[in-house]
Amino acid sequence: MSPLRPIRLALDRWLFRLSSPERLPLTFGQRRIYVLPTGAGYAFAVALVVMLIASINYNLSLGYGLVFLLFGLGVVSMFHAFRNLLRLSVTHVRGEPVFAGEPARFSFTVRNESTLPRHALLLASREARSSTWSVDAGSVQEVSLDHPTHQRGWVSPGRLTLETRYPLGLVRAWSVFIPEARCLVYPVPEPLPPPLPESGSHDAGVRSAGDGDDDFAGLRAHRDSDSPRHVAWKVIARDGPMMTKRFAANEEGDCELDWQALPPGLDTEQRVARMTAWVLAATAAGRRFTMRLPGGTIGPASGDGHSRACLARLATFGLGGTAHKRAED
After folding, report:
1. Distance separating alpha carbons of residues 29 and 177, to the nearest angstrom
2. Same domain for 291 and 181?
3. Would you write out the chain's pLDDT as a tens digit for each of its 329 residues?
4. 143 and 52 in a common domain
5. Same domain? 68 vs 141
6. Phi and psi (nearest 5°) for 318?
7. Are 187 and 205 in contact (CB under 8 A)?
8. Number of domains in the chain
9. Cβ atoms within 10 A of the Cβ of 248, count?
10. Which residues cross the membrane (predicted)?
C-alpha cells in the first residue's frame, strides 16, 4: 500500500465528507460537483497566456480576439462539464454473489430526469473503471463495475467517482460517493474433495419408480417439460392420448454435511472449503442434504435455493464483525 494512501483517504473524508455509506437514491447537486482543468486544460491555459503576451508585445488586434475567443471556449467547456453531472441520480446498486477470486460485478442504475442527454460519463473505483457511457434525456442507464475479490464474506464497492471530461477534454468534473451496497463472496471450494458423506438412512440405494433412464416402469400423463425421446409414440400412433414413459431409477438417500464430523486436522478455512465443495456436489447430483454447522442446521432440502442458503452461511461463517469489507480498506 502506498504510504500516501492514508493521507489521501483522510483528505477525501474531510473534503467530500465521506464518513459512511450513503443511502440510495443519491442525487448529485451543485455542492457535490468539483471542476478542475485536466492536463490538456493546463496546457491550453499556458498557450493562451503565451498568445496574450505576444499580442500585447506586438499589439496584434487579431491576436487579442483569438485569445479572448479561446478563453471563452474554455469557460463554456467548464460550464458544460459541470452541467453534464448536475442532477444525475444513482437509484439502485445490485451485486450478484460470486466465489472468492472472481470479480464481484456491481450494476448501478443511473437516472437522468432532465431534458438534456449526458455524454462521456465514467464511473471508477480504486480498483476498476467502467467504459465511457452516456444516458439519454429522461431515461436510465445500467453501468457495471467489477471489483476484485480475494476472500469470502461481504464486499462493498467503497469510494466511487463519477466523472466527465465532456465536451473538449479541457476540464474534469467529478463527484465522489460511497453507496450503501454490498456483494456476497462465496468461499472457494476444495479442488478434490472426498465423496459425499451418507446419512446412514435405511432408504439409501432403494429402487423406486421415477423418471430415470433404467428399467421401464409404466406410463404417465405427458408434461411439457418431458423429453421427446420419452414420449410413448406407439400409443399416439394408435390414436391414444399423449403419454410419457416412466423408468425405474436408483434413488439415493439423503446425505448429511456435518462440520463436527470433519477430520480434526483441518482448520476453519479448509473445513469451509470442503463443505462448499460438498454443497456444490450434492446440488449437481440433485441430492437432498442437511448442512450442520456450529450454531445451526440448514435442511434437509434440495435445489438451487437450498444451495444458495448454505453457501451464504458458509461465506460468513466465523467472520463476525469483519464480514463486511469496504474496497478502500
Report:
1. 12
2. no
3. 456 666 766 666 666 666 678 888 999 998 889 999 999 999 999 999 999 999 999 989 999 999 999 999 999 999 999 999 999 999 999 999 999 999 999 999 999 999 999 999 999 988 889 999 999 999 999 999 999 999 999 999 888 999 999 999 999 999 999 998 899 999 999 988 888 887 644 343 333 444 444 455 566 676 665 667 667 766 676 666 777 766 544 445 678 899 988 998 889 999 999 999 999 998 888 888 999 998 888 878 888 899 999 999 999 998 865 445 544 44
4. yes
5. yes
6. 75, 0
7. no
8. 3
9. 17
10. 33-56, 62-82
For the record, the C-alpha cell of 60 comes out as 496584434
The grid cell for 96 is: 450478484
**Together in a domain, 74 and 199:** no
Cα angle, residue 169 at apex, residues 166 and 173 outer, rounded to 5°? 55
* Strand order through the sheet with 104-112: 26-27, 88-95, 104-112, 139-147
191 and 178 within one domain:
no
Structural contact between residues 256 and 277, judged by C-beta atoms closer than 8 angstroms: no
Residue 8, all three cell numbers: 489521501
Domain that holds residue 100: 5-185
